[in-house]
Amino acid sequence: MSLEAQYRALYQLMYKRGTRDAFEQGKFERFEGTSDDEAAEISKVAGLRQNIVVQLHANDIGNNWYAPRFPATWMALQVALGVDQAELTMRLTNADAFELRVNDDYDGRALAAYVQQLAEFKPPRGHKTEPPLAGAPWLPELLRYERMIAGHWPDDASPRVERFDWDVGGVHDALLEKELFPVDERPVPLHLLLHRDAAGVTEVALNAEQASTMKKLLRGEDTKGEPPKIVAKCRRVLNQLKD
Amino acid sequence: MSEDSPLKQVLQVPLLGVGLGIDIFDVQPDFRTLIRDHRDGFDFLEVYSRGDWEHTDDPFAQIPADVPRTYHHEGLDPVGPSLCPDGPIEGCIKNQKLLSPPWTVEELAVRHIDGRYTDFFFPAILNAECVKATVANLCELAKRIPGPLLPENAPYEFVVGDMHLFDFMNEVAHGADCGLVLDLGHVWSYQLCVGKGDQPDDQLDKLDLSRIIEVHLAGARIEDYEGGRIYRDLHGAGPIPEESLFLLRQLIGKLPNLKAITIEVEDASEAVAVAQARQVREIVQQIRPTWLEGMHVA
Q1: How far is the C-alpha of A111 from the C-alpha of A93, rounded, in Å?
Q2: Cβ pair B160:A65 closer than 8 A
Q3: Hey, is the C-beta of B115 within 8 angstroms of any chain A C-beta?
Q4: C or N: which end of chain B has fewer Cβ atoms within 10 Å?
Q5: Torsion of CA B6, B106, B104, B181, to 10 degrees
Q6: Helix or strand or coil: residue B278?
Q7: Residues near A167 by Cβ (< 8 Å), separated by ≥ 6?
Q8: pLDDT value at position B296?
Q9: Chain B contacts of A52, Cβ < 8 Å?
């Protein structure tokens, strides 16, 4: 008898659709480590009521964890995959990526791993399945942008220059302000100077030349070869950020 | 650390009255506004910090010393297979030191399974094995945490186990020699799971009512589906269900050791929060006026 195994079984029933469906279809009779009695008790749980509870919690996870923190990504994923929020959450929780979360995935690392998994999907040989993010190749970068403006950075370097392969600022605005799902986007690099302090994250858009000069300034490198006007402007921006 | 059992410790606490359960991180209701503008609307605050102990110094310091308070912790996972990690225990100790509450409330639920955070309180599995683990966890926690813990029945959306909730609560309370918080909405949530939704007080006579030190009420929403109903906690974002108020009327005269009634009002406006407290106070006034008078004597 193992209480641990019983809680694990419930965890699987709540978050792992593949396991839940297999259990309900009788593909296996008991969860690992449970006794006959425990298996019988757990089998009483699986069914209509539990499926409805799973749906309710899937919406809770969407509404409480992801929609407020990464709103553009969360919305775009639903459109790109052609699913509603509950379905998206159930796909996410079923993925191994979900197990990477820290607490309520406050920094989006589990979501990022899931999006990456979708981006890297390759149909089996001979199949013509379209990759899930074929219509939204910018999604991984959009999420990286949303995580960065939320202050979830890979290290503490601030200010910093970040290059995004797509105009994720424009995609973000289109999704949230115009409620439009960008189609047929082409990769246009976006360079941002990002600064993080107690008040939050400040972003300043740069062109490629400014970004290059700004990087040198931030690394303390010689900028003698850079156009003086750009160097001056970069210094001014940095001073404003520090103020 | 007190030599007395957790039950003995809470029995020595004076009556607290009708209070509001607030989340210190909520913008609404803002506990500062409640204290400043609605102080006559509640007798005490039950302070919840989402299990956080790293960002509580400032907000806790803003609760004036003359506002009585209890503390609602999260993360001790008392119904888990083994004792929780040190972090939540140390956090509970820290928050207790900051607040000096007469007791600390903790759900009879787990928030982590195999170390992974869940999106809700997984309520206790209702069987003998879970009783044994829970009693062991609570006894160990009592050795480490200075103030007494009051375990609370968690909300149920589906039930696992062959034991009745009230038997489970009795065995836990007697085994760990502690008092209990009885959340009336959560009682109804259990009854909805076991097909007794129309009889919220079904088998209530099983429960050892002398162990109930605090009662909780809160707003809720009911999800209907073909074949049943599911209770969902809304706290202050919804009205208190009539079934919870029915249970209050049934029980209020039968709880010899009741010290506190808390209305959990997270997400309510300040006006709604005090209106819900007034609604509950009126019921108490009608059925057991001496209890409220006892508070003033205390």
Answers
A1: 10
A2: no
A3: no
A4: N
A5: -70
A6: helix
A7: A185, A188, A189, A190
A8: 60
A9: 223, 225, 230
HSE-CB for A174 with a 13 A CA cutoff = 13
Closest residue in A to B195 (Cα) is A49
**Residue B224's beta-bridge partner residues?**
B229
Measure Cα distances from A63 to A31, A59, A75, A128 in Å: 30, 6, 11, 34
> In three state form, how does the secondary structure of B140-153 look?
HHHHHCCCCEEEEC
Instruction: Write the DSSP assignment of A69-104 as a string of letters.
Output: TSHHHHHHHHHHHT--HHHHHHHHHHSGGGGG--TT
Nearest chain A CA: its distance from B39 CA (Å): 31
Rounded to 10 degrees, the C-alpha dihedral A235/A236/A237/A238 comes to 50
Interface contact A106, partner B, CB < 8 A: no
The backbone torsions φ and ψ at residue B45, rounded to the nearest 5 degrees and listed phi first, read -115, 140
What proportion of chain B, given as a percentage, has pLDDT over 70?
A: 98
Q: Which two tokens stand for residue B63?
A: 């609760």
Whether B128 and chain A come into contact, CB under 8 Å, resolves to no
Q: Which of A10, A13, A100, A101 to mutate to test the interface with B (most CBs of B within 10 A)?
A: A10
A239 touches chain B (CB under 8 A): no
Q: Indicate the residue of A8, A49, A57 with minimum beta-carbon distance to B228.
A: A49
Contact check, Cβ <8 Å, A11/B81: no
Tens digit of each residue's pLDDT (9 = 90 or more) over A102-129: 999 999 999 999 999 999 998 888 888 8
Q: How buried is residue A157: exposed, middle or buried, by Cβ count under 10 Å (0-12/13-18/19+)?
A: exposed
User: Is B119 close to A4, i.e. CB distance below 8 A?
Assistant: no
pLDDT exceeds 80 at position B1: no
Give the orientation angle of helix A85-94 with respect to helix A109-119, to 10 degrees.
Answer: 90
- Is B130 in CB contact (< 8 Å) with chain A? yes
Q: Which two tokens stand for residue B19?
A: 């209070």
Bridging pattern class, strands B44-48 and B17-23: parallel
Alpha-carbon span A234 to B222, nearest angstrom: 57
DSSP state of A24: H
Residue type, A162: E
Task: Count CB pairs under 8 A between chains A and B.
Answer: 79
Residues 19-38 of A with CB under 8 A from B: 37-38
Predicted confidence at residue B297, as pLDDT, reads 58
The predicted complex's ipTM stands at 0.93
Q: Rounded CA gap, A212 and A229, in Å?
A: 14
